[in-house]
């Protein structure tokens, strides 16, 4: 071995359950049980997304905010790359140098996507409660991608150059993915845990006067879960490095499975499920076009063209009220101005067919309009 990467303890015995589960192959088929138990929840989540794809597409076309499409794309990207990693890991021979290298690169790639999404959510919530333009979203994604890239390149380099003895399999002479070594995993997990706990304290410190903090409990529950997960990861990595190695490995296994299997569904549930639900959602982000930003066609016309009968169920919920798009998760108060032409386009096709109409008054400055419903 080239190095221990921070651990002074003897390696965990291979017959220990929490290590055995990481490399055991079902009937010598290269299908490791560890990859399988991560694949199953991701595959089920993909099935869930596929079944709801048409409704999600309809809702995305009905909103002027690009942030929902951004998060929906990130969710799809995360789960697809996770499935690819599991599938490839089940086909390559990790005992071969090339197979082991491919497996580690795929692990780091998945971590890159998950970490970029993780940071984007926090930044959107704390610094960009009112999304001013699509360029703001692009800048945030670029910044989080660069930070995530630096993190994962460091992790991958440590993983390849200094593999951790704790994850070496003597009987097969190869190294499992060790998260860049337990010292790196301990330090990074501890840093992330501290950051999330600080976010949880923001509503109770004077700094809150200068920030447009989120107002919904769901955001803080999301942050709390990640804070607890990272803190537990730090404990497990610390035990592996300086304490009870077998217990520490079990803790690391559990937190790793939770993060790589359930984090993406957590993002969807917290930030997208209410928006995609049939009932009227409470919008999580707001968006307004800048003066120098052209308005897209889908902001001034009916988002889709289908028969009235085919839209009778979902469109009634989507288009029935403009107030659906007025409140956000991250704004303290007030509403987001809406183009009156786009406001008119939100009328349900079914209400048109039934003889209802919307009379739009002349707009006042700031797009303040008054809608008068008449039948």
Automatic annotation (TrEMBL):
<protein>
    <recommendedName>
        <fullName>Transmembrane protein adipocyte-associated 1 homolog</fullName>
    </recommendedName>
</protein>
<keyword id="KW-0472">Membrane</keyword>
<feature type="transmembrane region" description="Helical">
    <location>
        <begin position="105"/>
        <end position="127"/>
    </location>
</feature>
<keyword id="KW-0812">Transmembrane</keyword>
<dbReference type="GO" id="GO:0005886">
    <property type="term" value="C:plasma membrane"/>
</dbReference>
<feature type="transmembrane region" description="Helical">
    <location>
        <begin position="66"/>
        <end position="85"/>
    </location>
</feature>
<feature type="transmembrane region" description="Helical">
    <location>
        <begin position="219"/>
        <end position="242"/>
    </location>
</feature>
<feature type="transmembrane region" description="Helical">
    <location>
        <begin position="33"/>
        <end position="54"/>
    </location>
</feature>
<feature type="transmembrane region" description="Helical">
    <location>
        <begin position="182"/>
        <end position="207"/>
    </location>
</feature>
<dbReference type="InterPro" id="IPR018781">
    <property type="entry name" value="TPRA1/CAND2/CAND8"/>
</dbReference>
<dbReference type="Pfam" id="PF10160">
    <property type="entry name" value="Tmemb_40"/>
</dbReference>
<feature type="transmembrane region" description="Helical">
    <location>
        <begin position="257"/>
        <end position="278"/>
    </location>
</feature>
<keyword id="KW-1133">Transmembrane helix</keyword>
<feature type="transmembrane region" description="Helical">
    <location>
        <begin position="139"/>
        <end position="162"/>
    </location>
</feature>
<dbReference type="GO" id="GO:0004930">
    <property type="term" value="F:G protein-coupled receptor activity"/>
</dbReference>
<comment type="similarity">
    <text>Belongs to the UPF0359 family.</text>
</comment>
């Amino acid at each position: 071995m080239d190095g221990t990467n921070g651990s002074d303890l003897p390696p965990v015995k291979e017959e220990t359950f929490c290590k055995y589960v990481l490399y055991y192959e079902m009937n010598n088929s290269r299908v490791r049980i560890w990859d399988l138990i991560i694949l199953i929840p991701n595959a089920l989540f993909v099935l869930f997304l596929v079944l709801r794809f048409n409704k999600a597409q309809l809702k995305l076309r009905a909103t002027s905010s690009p942030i929902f499409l951004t998060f929906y794309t990130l969710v799809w990207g995360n789960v697809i790359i996770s499935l690819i990693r599991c599938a490839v890991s089940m086909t390559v021979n990790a005992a071969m140098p090339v197979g082991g290298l491919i497996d580690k690169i795929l692990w780091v790639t998945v971590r890159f996507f998950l970490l970029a999404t993780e940071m984007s959510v926090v930044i959107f919530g704390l610094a960009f409660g009112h999304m001013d333009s699509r360029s703001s979203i692009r800048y945030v994604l670029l910044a989080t991608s660069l930070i995530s890239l630096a993190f994962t390149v460091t992790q991958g380099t440590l993983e390849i150059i200094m593999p951790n003895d704790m994850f070496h399999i003597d009987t097969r002479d190869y190294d499992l993915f060790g998260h860049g070594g337990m010292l790196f995993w301990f330090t990074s997990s501890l840093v992330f845990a501290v950051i999330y706990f600080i976010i949880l304290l923001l509503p109770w410190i004077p700094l809150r006067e200068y920030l447009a903090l989120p107002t919904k409990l769901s955001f803080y529950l999301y942050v709390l879960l990640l804070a607890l997960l990272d803190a537990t990861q730090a404990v497990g990595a610390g035990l592996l490095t300086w304490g009870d190695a077998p217990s520490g490995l079990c803790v690391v296994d559990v937190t790793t499975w939770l993060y790589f299997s359930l984090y993406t569904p957590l993002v969807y549930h917290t930030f997208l499920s209410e928006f995609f639900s049939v009932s009227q959602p409470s919008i999580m982000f707001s968006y307004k076009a800048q003066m120098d930003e052209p308005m897209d066609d889908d902001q001034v016309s009916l988002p889709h063209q289908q028969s009235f009968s085919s839209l009778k169920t979902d469109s009634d919920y989507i288009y029935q009220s403009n107030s659906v798009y007025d409140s956000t998760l991250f704004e303290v108060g007030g509403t987001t101005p809406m183009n009156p032409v786009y406001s008119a386009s939100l009328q349900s096709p079914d209400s048109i067919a039934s003889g209802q109409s919307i009379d739009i008054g002349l707009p006042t400055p700031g797009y303040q309009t008054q809608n008068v419903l008449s039948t």
